[in-house]
């Protein structure tokens, strides 16, 4: 608990503040370009009038062409006019070969991707901290390649290190569980003339331990390295490019598989999301909001571990990316929020490059 101006602020209020900050960031990313266009329009009109007065006998448009004026965009869109653009618009969002790809922890690359090699490499290190003291540290590596202009395939290998206090015959003990999680394989088909639409089918293989025992007890479902069964998801995305950046709209239908050998079950879910990224030279600040609903409750050891209110959650995400011709970096913060409570928050650091 903290004391701010005489009022106690619980850590459980953080997700609401995070959601509010995300909504404000999304609103800003959308509204700032609109204001910039108004400023740009005013500058252009003033320039046309000035040139029309200088070059007589010509229309405004003809005078503008005749003057060969060097028109500069409004200041809101000009991060550093002296620096060259580090990546082409062909590498942004849905039009790119590696942008807008989720890799771990719900984080998503929004800005310019690094491409040109045979293998695209994305790595995300994320730390998930639960308010009850448990934590999970994961390193997720994604290797992908393009099969022509429309198809791409990828595989993701996660390494996870979980820790949590467990009740071992009436005594609280700290349990640690490191190891590889479930492998996932995905295939993506890009649609449309500009590849603005995409469909991705992902399958997970039960390679991670789902029945690990520490301190004489089977660890809770959230601390296991894998699910113990096959899983699948189908994702649709639409990317809209603007002169100021881009917006991504999408939805995912996920199937966690059937009940595993120890009685754990992950319910099927449906989620929708929207992300916005604003181009500021090599930097891309972004904000996203994901809404997820489950068709039934999760079960642990054949017992429901959710109530109806927890079957619906909102996940706000804030991030910033930096890119060069050969390397892209991302820093993101995310937290799931249900009507019932906040369970955890996650911070992620991503790296992206292209090899060979």
Q: If you had to describe this structure to a student in words, what would you say it looks like?
A:
- 33% of the residues are buried.
- This protein is mainly β and 356 residues long.
- It is elongated and about 90 Å long.
- The N and C termini lie far apart (51 Å).
- β1 and β2 (7-9) form a beta hairpin.
- The strands form four sheets. Strands 3-4-5-7-8-11-12-13-14-17-18-20 form a twelve-stranded antiparallel β-barrel. Strands 1-2 form a two-stranded antiparallel ribbon. Strands 9-10 form a two-stranded antiparallel sheet.
- It has two helices and 20 strands.
- The model is unreliable at 1-11 and 67-104 (pLDDT under 50).
- It folds into two domains: 2-77, no CATH class; 89-355, monomeric porin ompg (Porin, Beta Barrel), CATH 2.40.160.
- The chain has helices at residues 14-54, 60-67, and strands spanning 2-4, 7-9, 119-130, 135-147, 151-168, 171-180, 183-191, 197-205, 213-214, 217-218, 231-241, 245-255, 269-278, 283-294, 299-300, 303-304, 312-323, 328-334, 337-338, 344-355.
- 14% of the residues lie in helices and 46% in strands.
Q: SSE layout and pairings?
A:
Layout (H helix, E strand, L loop, with lengths): L1 E3 L2 E3 L4 H41 L5 H8 L51 E12 L4 E13 L3 E18 L2 E10 L2 E9 L5 E9 L7 E2 L2 E2 L12 E11 L3 E11 L13 E10 L4 E12 L4 E2 L2 E2 L7 E12 L4 E7 L2 E2 L5 E12 L1
Antiparallel strand pairs: 1-2, 3-4, 3-20, 4-5, 5-6, 5-7, 7-8, 8-11, 9-10, 11-12, 12-13, 13-14, 14-17, 15-16, 17-18, 17-19, 18-20
Helix pairs in contact: 1-2
């Amino acid at each position: 608990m903290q004391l701010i101006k005489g009022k106690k602020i619980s850590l459980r209020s953080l997700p609401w503040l995070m959601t509010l900050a995300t909504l404000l960031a999304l609103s800003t990313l959308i509204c700032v370009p609109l204001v910039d266009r108004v400023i740009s329009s005013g500058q252009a009109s003033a320039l046309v009038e000035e040139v029309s007065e200088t070059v007589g006998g010509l229309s405004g448009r003809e005078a503008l062409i005749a003057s060969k004026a060097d028109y500069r965009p409004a200041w809101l869109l000009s991060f550093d006019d002296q620096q060259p653009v580090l990546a082409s618009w062909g590498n942004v969002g849905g039009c790119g070969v590696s942008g807008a790809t989720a890799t771990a922890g719900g984080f998503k690359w929004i800005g310019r991707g690094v491409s040109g090699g045979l293998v695209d490499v994305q790595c995300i290190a994320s730390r998930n901290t639960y308010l009850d003291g448990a934590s999970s540290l994961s390193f997720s590596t994604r290797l992908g390649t393009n099969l022509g202009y429309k198809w791409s395939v990828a595989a993701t290998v996660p390494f996870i290190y979980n820790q949590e206090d467990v009740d071992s015959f009436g005594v609280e003990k700290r349990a640690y569980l490191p190891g590889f999680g479930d492998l996932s394989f995905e295939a993506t088909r890009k649609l449309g003339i500009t590849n603005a639409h995409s469909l991705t089918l992902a399958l997970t293989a039960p390679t991670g331990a789902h029945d690990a025992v520490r301190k004489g007890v089977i660890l809770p479902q959230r601390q296991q390295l894998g699910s113990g069964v096959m899983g699948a998801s189908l994702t649709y995305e639409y990317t809209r490019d603007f002169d100021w950046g881009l917006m991504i709209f999408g939805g995912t239908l996920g199937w966690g598989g059937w009940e595993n050998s120890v009685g754990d079950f992950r319910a099927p879910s449906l989620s929708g999301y929207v992300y916005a990224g604003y181009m500021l030279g090599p930097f891309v600040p972004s904000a996203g909001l994901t809404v997820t609903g489950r068709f039934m409750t999760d079960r642990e050891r054949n017992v429901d571990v959710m109530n109806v209110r927890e079957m619906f959650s909102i996940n706000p995400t804030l991030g910033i990316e930096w890119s060069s011709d050969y390397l892209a970096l991302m820093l993101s913060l995310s937290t799931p929020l249900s009507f019932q409570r906040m369970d955890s928050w996650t911070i992620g650091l991503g790296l992206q490059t292209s090899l060979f």
